[in-house]
Each structure stands twice: as C-alpha cells, then as structure tokens.
Amino acid sequence: MQPGLADRLSRALVSCHPRRWRERYLEEMLDVLDQHHPTGRTVASLAVSVLSTHLDPAYRTAGPSRSQLRRAAGWAAAIIAPLALVSGCLGYAAWNERWQLSGAGGVGAVAFGPGQRLLVTGVGGPGTNNMVTVWDFADRARPRQLSAFRGGQPTALSPDGLLVVTPAPDDEPALWNIADPRQPVRVAVMPALGHQPLWGEAFSPDGQVFAAAYLDQIFLWDVANPARPRLLGTLAAQAVQANDAASITPQDIAFSPDGRFLASVTGTDHVTVWNVTDPARAVRIATLASSRDMVQTLAFSSDGNLLAGVTYYGTVLVFSLADPARPALTTTIGTIMPHALWPDGLLKHPDAPPCPPCSPAAYAVAFTPDGHTLTVLVDREESSVSGDPAVTMWSRDTIFTWNVASSGALSGLTTAFRKVVDNYPALAPDGRTVADGSPDSNAVYLWTPP
Amino acid sequence: MPVHGKFDELGRFADPSLLILTSLADGPKHGYAIMTDVAAFSGVNMEPGTLYGALSRLERRGWVRPLATQERRRPYEITAAGQEVLAEQVKTMQQIVQVARLRTAMAWGA
C-alpha cells in the first residue's frame, strides 16, 4: 500500500471509533500517527480496533440494544466501506501524495512546469554524481518519470516548460531543451566567467531571459535562441554572505510576473531590485534592508506590486513596489517560528531555544495567482529538544497563509501542518501545493493544505 | 509467548500488554515512545491500533495510569498493581526459560 494512502486511511479509521473512545484517545492517537509511518499493517490494526471497540460494552453508547447495534453496524459497514475506500482514494489524490523516485538518488531542488503537469527535480551540487529528473505528474497518483540526465541544483524550469537550466561542472549553467521531455538535449553552456558558486537561477516570465546569480554578480542571458545564449549584461551587487550557503534556494532570485523587475538577495540582509524592462540596460532601483537577517526566499505577487520574502530565522517581509521609485517595506512579521511545528510535532517546547538562535528552517513563499493570499512554508528539521532521538529524522511542514491587501498588509492567518521527512520545499504556481524532497529519502512528497 | 493467569484475560492483547508494561517499567512514556521503545528492546513493531487496544485494557484493569496531557500527548505510567502482574509474568517466563534451556541442552547433548 502506498504510504500516503495508508496514512489517509489510518486517519479516517481513527475517526470511525465509538464516540466515547474518540473522546478519550483520538488526540493522542492522531499524534502517534503524526510520528508513525503508516503502512497496510497500520490500516489493518486500526480496522480491527474499530470493530472491537464498537463491540466493546465499555465504549458502546447506551440506548440501542445489542441486536440493533449489530444491524446498524452491518448497514454502516456495507455503506461506509465502499465510500471510505473511494473517499480515501480521492482524498489521497487531492491531499497527499508521495512517490518514490527510481534511480534519481534524491531531491535537492524542485521546479514546477506550466499547468503543474511537469515537475523537474535535481539533486547534488556541481562536480558530484548529480541527476535531474523530469516527471509528468498530470496524474498525481501515477507520476511518470520521463527522463533523467546529469545535472544538479539549483535547477530552473522555463515558464513554458521547454527549457531546464542546471549546473554543469565548474558552475556553468547548462541549458537543456526538454521540448521532448523523454529525450532532453543539452543545447548550450553559459560560461561562468570565473565566478562561483552558482546559487540562484531564474527565467523571465516570457522565457527569453535567464538570470544566473553568483556571489556578487548576476548574469543576464538572452536565451531566445537556446542554442546560442547571448550575454545581455551583468548586474553588480553586494556579495551575498549566507549564514548557510547550502540553504540558499533558487527562489532567492525572482523576476516579477510582468517582467519589469528582478529581485535578488544581496549582502547579508538586503534585497536588491532592478528594473529589467530592457535587460541589456538594467537599472538598479532600490536596495531594501530586511532589517532582520538574510532573506532566504523571494516571490512577487502576480501584478508585480508586492514582493514577499522570508528570512533565515523566519521573519516574513512584504515590500511594496507600487511606486517603483520608492519601494518600501510595508509588513514585517517576525513571530512565525514559534508557531511552526518542531520535529517532535510540538508547537512549543519548554526547553526550546529562542529564535534566533534556533536552527534555520527551509522556506518557500508564493502568492496565489489572484494575489489575495500569501503562503509561507516553513520546513523545520530542527534537532529535537524532547530527547527522543527517533524524532530528529523527521521535519515538519507548517503552512502559513494570510489574506493580502493591495498595500501589502497581511491579515487572517491560518496554519496547516504536515509531517515530512524531506527538507527541500517548493510551492507550485498555484501558491498552495507543496512539493518537498530530500537528498536522503529519494522521494518527492506532494500535499495541499485543506 | 505464553502468558500467565491474569494476562490470559487480556486475550489477543496479552502479548502487547506485557510489552507495554515492560516498556513502562522504567518510567512513564507516551504512546509513540512506547512503540519505539518496544521495537528497540523486542523487535516487535507494534501498530497504533494494537497499542491503544492494549493500553485501554491495561488502564481499565488499573495496571497503567494516564498522566496529564502534554500538548497532544498523554504519558502513561505503570501502577503498583501493574508492577505486580508484570513481576508474576516475568517469574513464569523465567521458569519456562529454565525448563527450555534444560531440555534443549539435553536434546542437543550439551
């Protein structure tokens, strides 16, 4: 049985216990399931538990006679079993999928293609035995591996889903044509010109320009003809000084959806925004201070007027670019880490260190296409403070969503949680679907908060 | 695993109950900690349905006691009565082990 399906069915079965039993054990049993990796055996044991507790006088609701209960149980079983199976399968498809990759060796970067039909995963850094894998996951329950080729992370996918950029040896971005995703063809390598490391990649919304971010330089390449990339210009920036270089993700550099702006992490705690309407004559329009710590991930709203970021210690920032001449930090929310689950499954722990200096998490940020919602994903794999060594192998996804005003003000926070074992999260273009992979687990985990 | 007197009344939960009482013998634990502890000392991967089926029966017999909930977790501790039945069961098992050792040694000619 697929792990996701087993998890779904297990949770459904827990809710099928008698009311008295649920009042007493439901919460703690769900907590156990949060930490357990349900299998077919788990489902079977819970099904037996449901049956036996319904027949147990200690949990039977007073009132109906034994024969009435048996009849009701028979009818319920006849009706509920097929419904549970169908709803479990549907729920599995809609809410939570995880699939094992074959031979890809893990996941260190995830990029979604147009329409969320194509997924590209990469693992490893330059100079190692890395792989990029192209997946068709239009049918989420049965994703198909279309191809795999030598690459690594960061990995970027063009908006039309036809080009993939992944580092070649020596941090040179290699351009792959995946118009036929079953037969990727390397069409060009863009020279790094001595710069290292390559930590950020982004395509412009029209797919004509590719930005390659190095420590203190951003190269803009014209990739309209992928076989002959042409260097359009170089943007100088204050050298990035990461707290942890490995945690920098491709989202750290982003084009606005209208193609006007390019935003990049710079220095230790800044975001620099350029006007790239004419990429060959890009103009820096602002260097914005995060006022906290290094920004880890960036995303523009669909109208390009808002830029959201999350810092190393989980501070959420929203900048307004409505007046491009005077970009401004409009929202700072520095309180989300205490509301992100620890690997133990706890929201708070009495022995937990404050944040900072808590360990960093991995983040993803995205606006929904209508621009009304901001989603921040915190994937926390902090070492357990419970003393239980078993929990340190997990991380926890916590999804924060806010309503977004045109000014950038956030309101109406809601949260959702998920146990994962992976720590390279990405948000799909819908701003809600989460993909999480890990170099260790050799799997991609997909879920959408309810 | 053969079970003794009072454990017989637990039916199919007799073996899991013995493992749970053994796990709690060195201090209170919550559900998942019991599962991992049991797996560590016995190699038995107990599933949640079995765990809570056994825990509820142990609780009703007064052999374990629930403690205050911590977040969503509720630790359990073994009671004096639970320690007593565990000791009885261990004694029975020791007798069985002793006989088994003796007989296997004879059969193998050691």
Largest interface: A-B, 31 and 21 residues
Query: How much is the average pLDDT of chain B?
Result: 84
Percentage beta strand of chain A: 35-45%
Biggest beta sheet summary of chain B = 2 strands, antiparallel
Please indicate the count of domains of chain B. Answer: 1
Most strands sheet of chain A: 4 strands, antiparallel
Count of helical stretches of chain A: 4
- The dominant shape of chain B is elongated
CATH second-level architecture of chain B:
Orthogonal Bundle
Over all CA atoms, what is the radius of gyration of chain B? Answer: 15 Å
CATH third-level topology of the domain at 107-236 in chain A: Methylamine Dehydrogenase, Chain H
Proportion of residues in helical segments of chain B: 55-70%
What's the CATH architecture of the domain at 107-236 in chain A?
7 Propeller
CATH domain class name of chain B: Mainly Alpha
User: How are the strands ordered across the major sheet of chain B?
Assistant: 1-2
Number of strands of chain A: 28
In CATH, the homologous superfamily of chain B goes by the name Winged helix-like DNA-binding domain superfamily/Winged helix DNA-binding domain
The span between the termini of chain A is 23 Å
**Main β-sheet, spatial strand arrangement of chain A:** 1-28-27-26
Which segments of chain A are poorly predicted (pLDDT under 50) over 5 or more consecutive residues?
Answer: 87-106, 245-250
Describe this structure as you would to a colleague.
The complex is a heterodimer of chains A (450) and B (110). Chain A is an alpha+beta fold. Among the domains of chain A are: 3-94, no CATH class; 107-236, Methylamine Dehydrogenase, Chain H, CATH 2.130.10.10. Chain A has helices at 3-14, 19-35, 40-55, 66-95, and strands at residues 96-100, 109-112, 118-123, 131-136, 144-149, 156-157, 163-168, 172-177, 185-189, 200-203, 209-213, 217-222, 230-236, 253-255, 261-266, 270-275, 283-289, 295-300, 306-311, 316-320, 328-333, 362-367, 373-380, 395-404, 410-420, 424-427, 434-437, 443-447. Residues 87-106 and 245-250 of chain A have low confidence and may be disordered. Chain B is mainly alpha-helical. Chain B has a single domain, classed as Arc Repressor Mutant, subunit A (Orthogonal Bundle). Helix content of chain B is 63%, strand content 5%. Chain B has helices at 5-8, 14-24, 31-42, 48-60, 80-108, and strands spanning 64-66, 76-78. Chain B has a two-stranded antiparallel sheet. In chain B, helix 2 crosses helix 3 and helix 2 packs across helix 4. The model of chain B has no long low-confidence stretch (mean pLDDT 84). Chain A binds chain B through residues 10, 13, 21, 24-25, 27-33, 35-36, 41-42, 44-49, 52-53, 58, 345-348, 388, 390, and chain B through 30-33, 35-36, 45, 47-53, 56, 60, 69, 71-74.
